[in-house]
TrEMBL record:
<feature type="transmembrane region" description="Helical">
    <location>
        <begin position="88"/>
        <end position="119"/>
    </location>
</feature>
<feature type="domain" description="General stress protein 17M-like">
    <location>
        <begin position="7"/>
        <end position="74"/>
    </location>
</feature>
<feature type="transmembrane region" description="Helical">
    <location>
        <begin position="63"/>
        <end position="82"/>
    </location>
</feature>
<keyword id="KW-0472">Membrane</keyword>
<dbReference type="InterPro" id="IPR025889">
    <property type="entry name" value="GSP17M-like_dom"/>
</dbReference>
<keyword id="KW-0812">Transmembrane</keyword>
<dbReference type="Pfam" id="PF11181">
    <property type="entry name" value="YflT"/>
</dbReference>
<dbReference type="InterPro" id="IPR052948">
    <property type="entry name" value="Low_temp-induced_all0457"/>
</dbReference>
<protein>
    <submittedName>
        <fullName>DUF1269 domain-containing protein</fullName>
    </submittedName>
</protein>
<keyword id="KW-1133">Transmembrane helix</keyword>
Length: 186
């Protein structure tokens, strides 16, 4: 099994998360090494909907423009709702992992598919629970996975953006973190 490092930055609002993704991309971090996941919109009495038309996605919800602008940067995305986190959108390699978790049987003791997907990347269970809680409170998570050097560089970039929390999981063992594939975005 391949060992990798993973940095996870938490942001309390969508503009900071979008700024982080753009800063990482501008610094030359390969988009295949990035994932973003978040909720950040409340359904209450409003219907949340979306449709995918090629590379474009539309939402009826508070952060539709945010997710729509990021959709084109990533090769994969998934929208799902779970009792633990409510409606969640994930873009990037984590979306492919999440799709696999949803399609297959969840063996992990987490109460959500998003938790199982994050755990399958090799992130420790206690951190998975923290990330699920962050999603419940409308935070956005930006993941960067890769070599120790890539993740250290990404961490220094992310730190300048003042996330509410910044973690690095070193030498985690997981199955290959898949690059985004077309079927996950369809």
């Amino acid at each position: 099994m391949e060992r990798t490092d993973i940095s996870v930055a938490r942001f309390s609002d969508h503009t900071k998360a979008e700024e982080a993704v753009k800063a990482l991309a501008q610094a030359g971090i390969d988009m295949k090494q990035l994932s973003i996941v978040g909720r950040g919109y409340h359904t209450e009495d409003n219907v949340v909907g979306f449709y995918n038309s090629g590379e474009r996605i539309r939402f009826w919800g508070k952060y539709g423009a945010f997710w729509g602008s990021l959709w084109g940067l990533f090769g994969a995305g998934i929208f799902l709702s779970s009792p633990v986190t409510g409606p969640v959108m994930a873009l990037g390699g984590l979306a492919v992992v999440l799709l696999s978790a949803v399609e297959g049987a969840l063996a992990f003791g987490a109460s959500s598919a998003i938790g199982a997907a994050i755990y399958s990347m090799g992130i420790p269970e206690n951190s998975v629970l923290e990330y699920e809680h962050a999603l419940k409170t409308d935070s956005f998570l930006v993941f960067v996975h890769g070599t120790a050097g890539d993740v250290a560089r990404a961490k220094s970039i992310l730190a300048t953006l003042k996330p509410t929390h910044l973690d690095v999981h070193e030498g985690v063992t997981a199955g290959a973190i898949p690059a985004p594939v077309a079927h996950a975005a369809k």
